[in-house]
Write the C-alpha cells for this entry.
Amino acid sequence: MSQGQQPVREGEERYAALLNNSNAVRAITSAVEGTLGPKGLDVMLVGDRGEVIITNDGVTILDKMDVSHPAARLLIQVARSQQKKVGDGTTTATVLAGALVQEGVSQIVRGVPASKVVAGMQQGVKMAAESLQARAREIEDLEDPLLAKAVYVAGREREDIVALVMEAASIIGIRKLKDPSYLLADAVTSHEKGSNEVFEGLLLRQLPLYPHDTPVLEDTRILILHDALEPESLDEEVLTTEAGFARYMELRERFTRDLHVLADLGIGLILLEKGIHPDAEQFCMDHGIMVIPRVSRNDLARVSSMTGAVPLRRTALHKERESLGRLLGFSPWACYDETLERVRIRSGGQKKEPFVTLIVGASTAEVVGESARIAADAASALQAAIAGGILPGGGTAELAVSYELERQREAVKGMEAFGIAAVAAALRKPMSQILLNAGYNPLEKMEEARAAQLTENCDGMGVDCDSGLVIHYEEKGIVDPALVKIHGLQTAGEVAAAVLRIHNVIKMRSAHGYEE
C-alpha cells in the first residue's frame, strides 16, 4: 500500500506544503494505530506534573496530546466528531483519515490535480458509505445475540462491562435507546471506591448539608428550586424605616410559614440551584429534610425528568398547599452513600421514563478512568447497533467494499477515478493495521481473507488474530455497529479532502495589528 511519504523532487516545490501536512498527519496517525484491534496495546500519556493516563481510546489519546501543527489538529477533529456523533470507533476513523491523506498525496505527486483527487475521493466515500449501509444487518430487539457481541467487541472483551451495559439496556428499553437525544454513555460514572453496579436512578455529585447525619428517605416527595431557600430580601435603605422593618418581619414570618408547609407536604428532599438561609437550614435539619445546595442546572433537569418535579422559583412557595403539592416530585428511596460520597435517588412512582446509572469501579483512579471509558464506548456501540444495524468487524466489510470500489472505478471516466482508487486503498488500512498489530504479514493475510470472501460469497470472512486462520467473523461474534464505520468514513473523508486542498500555509498577523 502506498504511503505518500515522497521526497520533494526538483521542480516540485509546489508540493512542499502538502507533504509537510501529510507528514504531520502521519505522525498523529502513528500515535494511535498501534492500539487498533484485539492485539492492540495501550498508550501512556504523561502530564507536566507527572499525572498518568493509560488508555487505548483514540479520542482520549488525541485530546491529551500536545499538538501544534495545524494539519494535525484537523485530524484530531475526526476523533472528536466521531466521539460526539456515535461515541465509538475514534481510532478507526483517525486511521482511515490518515490513510486517505496518504493515498491522496500519492496520487497528487504523480501529477493528478488535487481538485480531481478530492472530487474522486468524495465520490468514493459516498459510494463506500452506501455500500456499507446496504450490507448492514438490522438489530430488531435486545435479545439479538449479535448485539451483545458488538458490545463485547467495543467493550474490549471485558465481560463485566458487557454485563453492566446489557443490564442497563434492558432497564432502559429499546424505544428509549433509539431516541437520538438519549445517550446511554452519559449514564456511565466511575468511582475508585465503588464496584460495578447498575443503579436504577441517578447519582448526584453534590453533597447534602451534614452528609454524615442524613436520613434514609422512603416514598419521599421532592422539591426543586432554581433559586435559594431564603426569605425575600429588601434593600438596606428600606430597613431603616419603620414600615420597611415591619415589611421585613412580615417576610420572615411568611418564610417560616412556607417552611412548615413544606414539612406538612411530606417533602424529604430539597434540591437547590443556589444556597440556603441559616434558619431554613436548621428547620430542615430538625424535620429530617435532606437539602442539597448548589446543584447544577443540568442535574436539576435530570432529577426533574425522572421524578416528575417541576423546577420552581422561590416565590412559588407562596402557592396554595394543594397547588404546590402538584408540582413536587416523588422517589421511592433516596439516601447519601458514604462510600461513593454521592446522593442516590431511585427512579419510580411518578417517573415517565426509566433512568439508570452505570457505576464502574476499580482499585485506582487511573484504572477506573479507563474502565469508565471502555464502558462508555460499549454503551455507545450498543445504541449505534440498534440505530443502524451491524457489520462484520475487523475491517472485513471495508475490505469487501474496497474491491467493489475498484470495480466501480473502471466505469468512471476522467481523473476522478484516481480519487476513487485512493478511497479503495485506504479502506484496506484498518484490517492491515489490525493484522500488523497481531504480528502477521498484512499483505499475505489480507489476500487470504479476500480469497475466502470470494469463495464463500461472504463479506464476513476474516483472519483470526490468535491463530492466523481464516474464520467467519459473524459466526464468531466479531461485529461492529454499521454507524460507527459509516460515520467514521464520512468524517475521515471530509478532513482528508480539507488537508489535500491546502496549497500553502501562511501565518496570520497578530489580532492586534502589525508590530511597529
Residues 138 and 389 are 4 Å apart (CA to CA). Residues 365-388 form the longest helix (24 residues). Confidence is low (pLDDT under 50) at residues 1-8.
